Amino acid sequence: MQVTVVVPTFNEGPNVRELVRRIGDAADGLDVEVLFVDDSRDDTPDVIRQVAGSSGMPVRLLQRPEPVGGLSGAVVEGLRAARGEWVVVMDGDLQHPPEMVPVLLETAASTGADVVVASRYVGGGDAGGLDGRWRHLVSTASSLLARSMFPLRLRNVTDPMTGFFAVRTGSIDLAALRPRGFKILLEILARNKVVVVEEPFVFGERFAGQSKATFANGLRYLQQLTALRFGRMSTFALVGAFGAVLNLAIMWGLEQFGVHYMPAAVVSAAVTIVTNFLLLEHFVFHDLRSEGRSVWKRAAQSFTFNGIEAAVRLPFLHWLVVLTGMPPVLAQALTLVVAFLLRFVFHAQVVYRPRKDAPDRVTPLAGEPSTTTLDED
Question: Subcellular localization, per the record (predicted)?
Answer without folding.
Answer: Membrane
